[in-house]
Input
Amino acid sequence: MIEIRNLHKTFKAKAGPVHAVRGVGFEARDGEITGLLGPNGAGKTTTLRMLYTLMKPDEGDVRVDGLDAHREATAVRQRLGVLPDARGVYKRLTARENIAYFGALHGLDAGTIAARIEQLAETLVMEDFLDRRTEGFSQGQRTKTAIARALVHDPRNVILDEPTNGLDVMTTRGLRGFLRRLRDEGRCVIFSSHIMQEVAALCDRIVVIAHGEVRAIGTPDELRAATGLDDLEDVFVRLADLDQGEAA
Ligand SMILES: Nc1ncnc2c1ncn2[C@@H]1O[C@H](COP(=O)(O)OP(=O)(O)OP(=O)(O)O)[C@@H](O)[C@H]1O
Output
């Protein structure tokens, strides 16, 4: 369970301050997939970075399973599996070694790590490239490696920044099935996307974010009812104040 309240983050830039996140708050429940949906530059990645303790908010707080993300950062990190926007796999290591290294950092023993890798590699269909160095990996292979690495310690809460970016149709379908399974196991799953159809296909609840603010929270049907629009892309365009051309 992840609760975030009144998060603010402003970056200093030469041209003036950028108010990336302005009072974002929502709750992501266990046993649900929560989608953070917003156009480019809306503040999704910045929100997620604060959520997984990489960045300190200027204001507001984050609680993970009731623990304060700032004061109890180590305990919170143990409860989180994170796919960051920069996948950052080590290119001199094989996929297996990348995953095992994170398992060791989490304090798992060798037997547990080996068993988890077998399980994750099967679920994510990684057997063909598991023992290759990641240098030269396709985007999908790198993403799968980073997802497996994020999940090696069997976290209760899973945060994925644009997980399907650059993945082909079959890999995306596989990943959706995988995220549903995590949800059905009672985990809290949050992922971000700028594609309404993507979020609608998978999420129990959608948090629409634009210009650093939450514009609406609800199921796809609730968002349709709130806007009086049928087409989900139109719903997104309306809620995020987009011109038609920016929606894709
Ligand atoms: N380190 C930083 N320094 C300055 N500005 C930043 C920094 N990180 C983010 N921003 C700005 O904050 C705003 C929100 O960025 P963020 O990456 O959170 O958006 P996003 O919703 O994830 O977008 P996208 O879908 O394009 O990835 C943008 O205007 C971005 O340029």
